[in-house]
Design goal:
The complex is a heterodimer of chains A (135) and B (526). Chain A is mainly α and 135 residues long. Chain A contains six helices and no strands. Chain A is globular, with a radius of gyration of 15 Å. With 526 residues, chain B is mainly alpha-helical. Among the domains of chain B are: 153 residues; 104 residues, no CATH class. Chain B contains 23 helices and no strands. In chain B, α3 runs antiparallel to α4, α13 packs parallel to α15 and α16 runs antiparallel to α17. The chains are: A mainly alpha (135), B mainly alpha (526). Chains A and B meet through α1 and α4 of A and α6 and α7 of B.
């Protein structure tokens, strides 16, 4: 698999995990409406997070070149994904919603689930190392 | 580097995180920075003892000491920037085998970027093998059932009121625990401690990347002559650019001769053009400058100076393009070199003209940050021109030019950090208020460092404000609509009160000579 294909798979899986985490978080926060919120937010994030594919490809290319063992590189990649996800949500939210964005009560939930999803996607894919050509 | 156990590394990082938390939380960067610096420098000395014999490390250590004194003495933003920059340089030179300042800073940047990988490497328990793979497999067995249980738990909770109240009761204890936890331990402070952990690890752990060292090895101080085959392989963006501009002239056996002819014609024409510009400047600016109130100083001096600085920087780039390769070794290049050196000399005259423009501006309107900035930039341009001349005469590489000029920039930063510019500007402008118009609205925008100096010269400021009021100008401070005749005094009084109030929140960790002296003076003269 090329870096771009691997990135696309990783990105799509991150969105799925994000949807699942959102589902759990919003089920607790909003009750049964949480399903709907999680579904809509997952569909929206398909479009909203598309620009992240470019830095993800770059990170994945660096990941392959780093002079560390596989597990250390994987930890590094997971950290970079988490940092990128958090920075992107805060930046995009600020650009689209202005300073009021940070006052929205849903923001911590979205931030939390995005960071969890970004952190989980690498360990999930490690079990399919050969499939994703990460080594 | 001594071989350390995981526990020792962890001890270093945790100690660093705790110290960072205790020293810097809600404190100014002052004495605390020095204490943290001693801790980290001590550890660097223990981890990389051999590096402290390197001349670059000794030199940067001296610079760092100067910035540390400046930080404790002046505590300005510039001294803080210089302190952090010199520390990054120190770490870079200690950990990496590099010669140029820019590569040392890049080394530190690599450390910051790869800290997590380094931490994972140092903190990993047990070797990657069958056991850990089995463990990961077992975790995989747990994750999905756990997720399904959580989802159904949430659904039942949302649909069944009795179950919801039952679980709410249970959750109450859980949330109560967390609420209490965060009243004792601030979430912000936990994140701050983690930042301290990350910073300590980034400074102590050298990244395993050799890219920076390998890159610098490729560059030498002296230029080497490429064979025609080598020159072909070294074709880069400049080659393609010259082919795009000059077409066939840049190709073939006579390419170097053609390049020589083009460079000579360009330099002759540029010299003639600059001679006219310099002649005008020398006649009008050097010997016959008379300031009259009708002269638009801003347009003549400010914008003019900006454009001239750009022209000098462009001149250096043009010379670098011409003398980038084999033209340095061309047999008949003596006249080309002479024209280049004359052009450098003419650019030096231009630098003096810009300096004079800035001097007239300061003389008429007093000091300001941009005017001081121009002076610093001129020093850097001067170094750039001199090193460009050395490069041409002694056939030095662009890397040499870059290395020397980055060192010049570092030295200038360290030197600039030794002055409190806000106070310097206020004192100079007040001392020269009879020759240079005092710009009070500008002065009050400067930092709180100026308060003692402003307080000491309040009568002069009030006098200037009264003059402005007579002319119909009013200094609007906080409220634009409010017209007041004693704005300066009021504003300074308010700012002093706010400043003294803010100082009460700082502990001994934020101690610095500037604030200590200001507090003593302002409290005694309230």
């Amino acid at each position: 698999m090329s870096a771009i294909t691997t990135t696309l798979v990783l990105w799509f899986r991150t969105l799925l995990i994000n949807g699942l985490v959102n589902c759990v978080v919003f089920l607790f926060a909003e009750g049964i409406k949480g399903f709907m919120i999680a579904f809509v937010s997952t569909i929206a994030s398909l479009f909203l997070t598309a620009p992240l594919i470019v830095p993800m490809v770059v990170l994945l290319k660096w990941f392959k070149k780093l002079p560390y063992e596989f597990i250390d590189r994987a930890v590094w990649l997971a950290f970079m994904f988490v940092a990128m996800a958090a920075a992107y949500i805060l930046l995009a939210g600020f650009v689209l919603g202005g300073p009021d964005f940070f006052a929205e009560k849903e923001v911590p939930y979205f931030l939390f689930s995005a960071m969890v999803a970004a952190a989980l996607v690498v360990p999930v894919c490690i079990n399919r190392v050969k499939q994703f050509d990460l080594l | 580097m001594p071989t350390l156990t995981k526990k020792t590394w962890l001890l270093f990082f945790v100690t660093g995180a705790i110290l960072f938390n205790l020293f810097f939380w809600q404190q100014k960067m002052a004495l605390n920075a020095l204490l943290f610096d001693v801790f980290l420098s001590g550890l660097l000395g223990y981890l990389y003892p051999a590096s402290f014999k390197k001349p670059q490390v000794v030199f940067v250590l001296l610079l760092h000491l100067v910035t540390a004194v400046a930080l404790l003495w002046h505590n300005t933003t510039l001294s803080k920037i210089a302190f952090i920059t010199s520390f990054c340089l120190l770490v870079g030179f200690i950990q990496y085998e590099v010669r140029a300042a820019i590569f040392a800073v890049s080394g530190m940047a690599a450390n910051i970027f790869l800290t997590v990988a380094g931490l994972s490497e140092k903190m990993r328990w047990g070797k990657e093998g069958v056991t850990s793979k089995k463990r990961r497999g077992r975790i995989g067995f747990v994750v999905l059932p756990l997720f399904i249980i959580v989802v159904f738990f949430a659904i039942y909770r949302a649909s069944n009121a009795v179950f919801a109240s039952f679980t709410n009761e249970a959750f109450k204890h859980f949330t109560h625990f967390f609420e209490n936890f965060f009243t004792h331990f601030s979430f912000g402070r936990i994140l701050f401690t983690l930042l301290g952990f990350y910073i300590t690890a980034a400074i102590l752990l050298k990244s395993r990347s050799r890219a920076i060292e390998n890159l610098e090895v490729k560059y030498a101080n002296d230029l080497l002559r490429h064979s025609s085959k080598g020159a072909r392989s070294a074709r880069n963006i400049f080659y393609h650019f010259s082919v795009a501009i000059t077409g066939k002239l840049a190709k073939g056996m006579l390419a170097l001769k053609n390049e020589h002819t083009i460079a000579t014609i360009s330099l002759v024409l540029l010299n003639l053009l600059l001679l006219i510009v310099n002649g005008i400047d020398v006649y009008y600016l050097w010997f016959n400058f008379n300031y009259s109130p009708n002269t638009n100083l801003y347009t003549m001096i400010h914008e003019g100076a900006d454009m001239l600085i750009v022209s000098v920087v462009l001149a250096i780039i043009v010379l670098l393009l011409f003398f980038r390769g084999n033209l340095n070794f061309y047999k008949s290049n003596s006249w080309l070199k002479r024209f280049a050196l004359v052009w450098i000399l003419q650019n030096l005259v231009l630098v003096v003209s810009v300096f004079l423009r800035d001097y007239y501006y300061i003389r008429e309107l007093g000091l300001a940050y941009k005017r001081i900035g121009v002076l610093f930039f001129l020093i850097l341009v001067l170094v750039g021109l001199i090193t460009a001349a050395i490069k041409i005469i002694r056939r030095k590489s662009v890397y040499y030019l870059f290395r020397i000029n980055t060192w010049a920039a570092v030295l200038l930063l360290v030197a600039a950090s030794c002055v409190n510019w806000d106070v310097f500007i206020v004192r100079y402008n007040i001392q020269h208020h009879q020759t240079a118009r005092l710009n009070i609205p500008y002065l009050v925008t400067l930092s709180d460092d100026i308060l003692p100096a402003m307080k000491a010269h309040i009568s002069i400021l009030k006098q200037r404000e009264a003059e402005l009021n007579k002319q119909g100008y009013y200094i609007h401070m906080e409220d634009e609509k409010k017209k007041c005749s004693l704005c300066v005094e009021q504003t300074i009084k308010e700012r002093i009160q706010q400043y003294l109030k803010a100082q009460k929140n700082n502990s001994w960790l934020s101690w610095n000579r500037k604030d200590a002296a200001a507090i003593t003076y302002l409290t005694q003269n309230q």
